[in-house]
UniProtKB/TrEMBL annotation:
PANTHER family from the UniProt entry: PROTEIN YCEI
Organism per entry: Puia dinghuensis
InterPro entries: Lipid/polyisoprenoid-bd_YceI (IPR007372), TTHA0802/YceI-like_sf (IPR036761)
Transmembrane segments: none
Stretches assigned to the Lipid/polyisoprenoid-binding YceI-like domain: 21-177
Protein name: Polyisoprenoid-binding protein
Length: 179
């Protein structure tokens, strides 16, 4: 009997050490971008988060992210510009409805919640390596992830040559609910 309880205890301890699964949600989250257009900053956002996050604050090597957003949700507070961004020359949302980011590794777990995301960003079926720092803050049973990175829109064939800057900043604030 002692043997049985010993094994049961070991199993329970090992289960609690596993990375938890979280689901990103729109409410409390934001996926925003800033790009220069004619020398002025233009801001926009996306919604429609979906995916899965496996996260263990103490063991980053076990962490994984597979998250996407709805490309058709692009919003710059200008309906005409938003329609243009949804067209084939930019995001081509009918052919490529999702923008996806998938981790290949997460590193740097520290007691202050600072990590480094390494992975792949896919826009319009073009996939590029990406790496950026992020913070993970517990929110009850959930987590709030915040990070920022810069990409070149031309790497993903988003828009042609124009008065719009090639580089843009993406700011992520993702609330993930424990599953």
């Amino acid at each position: 009997m002692k043997y049985f309880f010993g094994i049961l205890g070991a199993v329970l301890i090992s289960i609690t050490g596993l990375a938890q699964v979280y689901k990103p949600v729109d409410q409390g989250s934001s996926v925003e971008f800033v790009i220069k257009n004619l020398g002025f900053n233009t801001k926009g956002s996306f919604s429609g988060l979906d995916g899965s996050i496996r996260f263990d604050a103490k063991e980053a090597e076990k962490d994984s992210f597979d998250v996407s957003i709805n490309a058709a949700s692009v919003n710059t507070d200008n309906d005409m510009r938003d329609s243009h961004l949804k067209a084939a020359s930019y995001f081509d949302v009918e052919k490529y409805p999702r923008i996806r980011i998938v981790s290949t590794s997460v590193s740097g777990a520290d007691r202050n919640g600072h990590y480094t995301f390494n992975g792949k960003l896919t826009i319009k079926d073009k996939t590029k390596d990406i790496s950026f720092p992020f913070d993970a803050t517990p929110d009850g049973d959930d987590y709030l992830f915040k990070g920022s990175f810069t990409i070149n829109r031309r790497d993903f064939e988003v828009g042609g040559s124009s008065t719009i800057s090639n580089s843009l900043i993406v700011n992520l604030t993702v609330l993930a609910k424990k599953q």
